[in-house]
Structure formats: C-alpha cells, structure tokens
Amino acid sequence: MFIDEFLKSASVLVCDDPTGSDPAFGQALEAAGISAVTSVSDLVAAQALLRNTCFDLILLDVNSAQSSALDFLAQRQLASTDSPAQPVLVVIHPNATDLRHRALTLGAVDFVERPFDIEALQLRICNALRVCQAQARERHFDEELEVRVQARTTELINATDAMVHRLGRVCEKGDVNAATHIVRVGKMAHLLAKTAGLGAERCFMIERAAPLHDVGMLCVSDDILSKAGRLSDEELAHMRCHAQMGEDLLGNHPSALVQMAASIASNHHERWDGTGYPNGLQGESIPIEGRITAICDVFDALTSKRSYKDPWSVQNAVDYLVAQAGHCFDPSLVAHFVTQLDAVEEILVRYPDTH
Ligand SMILES: [Fe+2]
Ligand SMILES: [Fe+2]
After folding, report:
1. How many angstroms is it from 230 CA to the middle of ligand 2?
2. Gap between the Cα atoms of 294 and 214, Å rounded
3. Between vectors from CA 203 to CA 200 and to CA 204, what angle results, nearest 5°?
4. How far apart are CA 157 and CA 191, in angstroms?
5. Which residues surround ligand 2, an ion (CB under 5 A)?
6. Under CATH, which architecture does the 2-144 domain have?
7. What angle do CA 250, 254, 259 make, to 5 degrees?
8. CATH 1.10.3210.10 occupies which residues in the chain?
9. By CB count within 10 A, which of 45, 99, 329, 339 is most buried?
10. Of the ligands numbered here, which is closest to the C-alpha atom of 189?
11. Does this model's pTM top 0.90?
12. pLDDT tens for residues 129-166?
C-alpha cells in the first residue's frame, strides 16, 4: 500500500530508446502504479524539458556502449556540481555488465533490466525516490541552516559595528564630528588596505578596528584635551600616552578584530623614520594596520574643519602626505593612497561632518 501511494505521486520522465519508443515501458510503469509519466524519445528534447520542468525521477534507456544516453548522463553529472540533478534510473538489457558499470559510474542511482519485472521495477523506483527525497530534505536543511547562520552573522556584525561606532565616538571626546571622522577613517583604511593587496578578511577587520585608534584618549584628562593653548611638555607626554593606554584598554583578547584594534591604538602615531611614539618603531616593524591608519587619520584630520583650523583642500592634504612619505608615513602606502583619490573623495562626500 505504501509503495502504491508513493508511486502514484511520483512524476517520471521517460527517455526512451531513440530508435523507437518501446510500449513495454509505458505498460510497465502503468502496472507499477505510476500515472504522471512524460515520455520523450529524443535526448535533446529531454534536456530542453528538464530546463523548465522538475521530475522526481528520470528513467533512461541505455541500449549500447555507444549510446548518447551515456553522454546525457555525463553532462548531467557535470551540471550537478552546481545544483543537484534529478535522479536517473537506467534501463539496460540483461548481462550488459560493462554498460551497467559505466552508467552507475556516471551518476545513475540504480538500474532495471529488460524484460521488466514489475515488482523489482516498483521497488527500485521507490528506493531511488526515497534516497533522493532524503537528499533533498538534507539539502533543504543545509540551506535553511546557512540562511540562519548568515542572518546571525549579519546581526553580529551589525552589533559589533554599532558598539565600535559608539565607543569610537566616546573616544573622540568633545569633538562633535567624531562620529563621521571615525567612519571616514575606517572606510579609508579599508580602501587603502585593499589597494595595498591585503586580503578581504583583514580589510573587513581594519574598517572596524581603525575607528578605535584613539580609544586611549578615554584615559587622558579633559583639561588637557580641551586646553586651547600649547600643551606643556608634561601635558604633551601625558597626551601621548593615549597610544599605549589604548592598547592596554583593549587588552590581550583572542579575537583577531580586538587584537587588530589594540595594534592600531598602539601604533597609529609611530613614524616610518622611527621618530614616532610610543615605541619609536621604524619602517615595516610598524604593523601595517598602524601604518595604514596613520595615513588615513592624518589625511582626514587635515581635510576636516577643527576649532583651531579650517579644512585643508584634498590637494594640499595629499601634498602633505607625499612630502611626509618616508618620514612620517610608509612611502609605498602613500603611493597607493594617491591612486585612490576619487574613491577617497567619495568617502568625504558620503560621510560629511555635521558642524
Ligand atoms: Fe591618536
Ligand atoms: Fe583620529
């Protein structure tokens, strides 16, 4: 009874012997209880039909070793690397052992032999359908799982972005344009990292880590940060501590993103010629994320309005970067930055200051 119901609901495509359709096929399927049968005797027509119609099972007559039905199987096997193919049950003549092996090797799920044994045909069709239904359920489960994982990942990224953004704003104490400054620095850092050939994952991380470059400013007193005149040597030394404090604040965390943020906080004031702080690192001993952020942070600060200065033109800021290449900045990164001025200006336009 179960087999009957199972077979009644199955849709089957029969690719018959191209030399002439075999009435035994139809009779055997009818006897097996399958009513939704579509028959073609031309494999090209079968391919065309399969492009738009989904069948539960394909019954394919393979009548000789030279049969184009074997090519048909091979093509379906190739195509199924991207999307799952419908199951194929081959029909062969008895004792065609080699043919049977070739068909199974090419992806046929099973075979039936002529003359048809109706009970064996029913059972083999049922088995093939069951296996394929189980595979389809597994695929559906995998796809659903992937969608759910993707949704959770997106949620996590959005939450991380929001937290980084809020923390970055707090770090740029007293600066009403801090929100857009840190976003622009992140976007430019991503652009420069990509142009310099860093992998997609590091570019993704640097965009999120660079906005925290001044997280250590949280430890600097407001009196120093808001002082209008020149800082004394002592105050300057305290203010410069923000780099080391930023690294300490972010701490030694296993997350690659937090590690990168700590590295940027520590290294964004190091200079290519070794005269920067806090460690006086030189050249490529300064981690590349620090060298990248240094360029983007200075460029954005120069082209932004501050309480003590008008914004520089892009050209003047670029001239400054070029003049400082090899002194403050990594010369090859400055060269990469200069090739991306259109994209940099797009970032400036897209994330403008509000005051
Ligand atoms: Fe800084
Ligand atoms: Fe900054």
Report:
1. 19
2. 11
3. 85
4. 19
5. 297
6. 3-Layer(aba) Sandwich (3.40)
7. 45
8. 172-350
9. 329
10. 2
11. no
12. 888 778 878 888 999 999 999 988 888 888 888 887 78
Per the structure block, which two tokens stand in for 29?
């399927």
What is the Cα–Cα distance from 207 to 127, expressed in whole angstroms? 53
From-to residues of CATH 3.40.50.2300 in the chain:
2-144
Q: Tell me the ligand closest to 295's alpha carbon.
A: 2
Q: Position 151: which residue type?
A: A
Question: 1: pLDDT confidence band, cut at 50, 70 and 90?
Answer: very low
- For residue 278, the ligand closest to its alpha carbon is 1
If you count them, how many residues does the chain have? 355
Nearest ligand (C-alpha, residue 290):
1
Please report where in the chains the tokens 């990164």 appear, as a residue: 333
Q: How far is the CA of 213 from the centre of ligand 2 (A)?
A: 7
Nearest CA among 52, 83, 88 for reference residue 70? 88
Topology classification of domain 172-350: Hypothetical protein af1432 (1.10.3210)
